[in-house]
Amino acid sequence: MLERLSHDLITVTPTAGEAIVTQGETGERFYLIASGEVEIHVDGALRHRSCAGDCFGEIALLNDVPRTATVVAASGCELLALERRHFVGAVTGHLRSDQAAASVAEERIALLP
Q: Over the stretch 63-111, which tens digit does the pLDDT of each residue have?
């Protein structure tokens, strides 16, 4: 399973200041931050910074809702992305991963205004 997922990962190298996802849009990918940093903006206000080892994009994919935040790349940012079908299939197909992903999504939703 992990080997197959690793083949499904897509490298994304956004430029500094580029919006990777935009609040309100449909979620199509889940992202892992391989290096660098991203800024999380909600309703135009900076709410959080995430760095290598963090992830984003799960709320829209797991809950089938529009993106809850805009995520903007900082300099030196490199991401690994999974398309919706690969992410949802991997997460919801296993009880532990489904519970872990749901927990992360719930924590992040609780931080929204």
A: 889 999 999 999 889 999 999 988 888 777 655 655 666 666 666 666 6
DSSP state of 76: T
Q: What is the β-pairing status of strands 70-73 and 37-42?
A: antiparallel
For the chain, domains (ranges, CATH) are 2-111 (2.60.120.10)
Question: Does the pTM exceed 0.85?
Answer: no
**3-state class (DSSP) for residue 48:** strand
